[in-house]
Design a protein that fits this description.
Elements lengths: L4 E3 L3 H13 L2 H19 L10 H30 L1 E3 L16 H9 L4 H14 L21 H12 L4 H16 L4 E3 L2 H8 L3 H20 L4 H12 L9 H34 L3 E3 L1 H18 L6 H6 L3 H10 L4 H11 L9
Antiparallel strand pairs: 1-2, 3-4
Helix pairs in contact: 1-3, 2-3, 3-11, 5-14, 6-7, 9-11, 10-11, 14-15
Length: about 350
């Protein structure tokens, strides 16, 4: 991120971080299982004739493999999402408390991180229609939606669904597609060139080849230079012939454990570039912000900061604000300050439960 750039911390990044905190426990749990069950297997290995690799060891190897793949995807997904949420600073705004004129909830969501989130943004859009008097507080359409200048095609699709009281997954995806097209064809976005898209996705095949070559050299060095050949022979014998580990030397077991992790790395590290490419491909967009888009994104970031600190305002300051309706919609679409959402809903005698499909 450049000196004259900032980024918006979105809910998707927070979700990845919560998943990361849960996933990190897989390794200690797997290692604990390996250490706790190994003595049992060692005790019974002399009478066990089944030529298989010990199940705890297989579980540990699978856990390491899965965790590395997950964190590769997680790290690069978060990185790409943050890049999508990065905007150029135009006015150096930290707080913004004016109305975001002309910006629908879907447009605000797009300006945040170049992506529309149907469930959240549909709820914010329905709330906006309610506050505009197009929908009643109980979700009934006040009048049949027609070709109004203030309503876009995606708005009319959403109101038709509201009139029925339901919306299928197919209709949600159609709404998202229409809303994205309306945003991209506006003043805030422009299409990326094919060269820009290819450059942002990158090409990991050369990196994968170089990593595989490097790991092959490291494995050969371990076996032939650092004398890990006995560990390699023991590992293959344990896998193919059911070799007992109860009589193995502790140093040999440690060397075998190190060798197993190096072999895992030789498989995972080269191919991690392909999982990285997958994560980047899924989050790379075919459009980017224009100058007006960057300016609007900066105001949205300022609004998000203002809503975050809204609870610190005095009651007198809150009562002086005249943009209650707009702030309520902004708080929902920006996923910021659930307290203000509940407070404003209470003032309006509304419930979001009636505005969700």
């Amino acid at each position: 991120m450049g000196k004259n750039q900032k980024h918006i911390i979105t809910g998707k990044v927070a979700q990845w971080r919560r998943r990361d905190r849960r996933a990190i426990w897989i390794i200690p749990l797997s290692l604990g299982m390996l250490l706790s069950l190994t003595p049992i297997i060692m005790e019974n290995s002399e009478i066990t004739a089944t030529p298989i690799l010990p199940i705890p060891l297989m579980w540990y190897m699978a856990s390491v493999l899965g965790l590395v793949i997950y964190f590769t995807i997680s790290r690069n997904s978060r990185k790409t999402i943050t890049q999508n949420a990065t905007f150029n600073v135009t006015e150096d705004i930290d707080y913004y408390r004016e109305k975001l004129s002309g910006l629908s909830p879907a447009t605000i969501s797009m300006l945040m991180d170049l992506e529309i989130e149907p469930d959240k943004d549909i709820t914010a859009s329905l709330l906006r229609f309610t506050l505009l008097g197009i929908l009643s507080p109980d979700g009934e359409v006040q009048s049949t939606p027609g070709p109004r200048p203030s309503l876009t095609e995606s708005d009319r699709l959403l109101l038709r669904a509201a009139q029925r009281g339901s919306m299928t997954i197919k209709e949600k995806l159609e709404w998202k597609s229409k809303a994205e097209d309306e945003c991209v064809n506006g003043e805030y976005f422009e299409r990326r060139t094919q060269m820009e898209i290819t450059k942002s996705k990158g090409n990991g095949y050369l990196i994968a080849f170089l990593r595989f070559a490097l790991m092959s050299i490291i494995v050969q060095l371990l076996i032939h230079v650092f004398h890990f050949d006995d560990a390699f022979n023991f590992f293959t014998a344990m896998a193919e012939e059911g070799a007992a580990i109860s009589s193995a030397d502790p140093i040999l077991l440690i060397k075998t454990f190190i060798l197993i992790n190096v072999l895992l790395a030789s498989i995972i590290w080269p191919y991690s570039t392909q999982f990285r490419s997958l994560a980047i491909h899924d989050n790379t967009k075919s459009f980017k912000r224009t100058f007006s888009g960057h300016a609007a994104a900066e105001k949205i970031a300022g609004m998000k900061n203002f809503l975050h600190d809204f609870s610190n305002l005095s009651e007198a300051d809150k009562n002086q604000l005249i943009l209650w309706d707009d702030f309520l919609v902004y708080a929902v679409v920006l996923e910021e300050n659930s307290q203000i959402v509940q407070e404003l809903l209470h003032r309006k005698n509304l419930s979001l439960k009636l505005l969700r499909f």
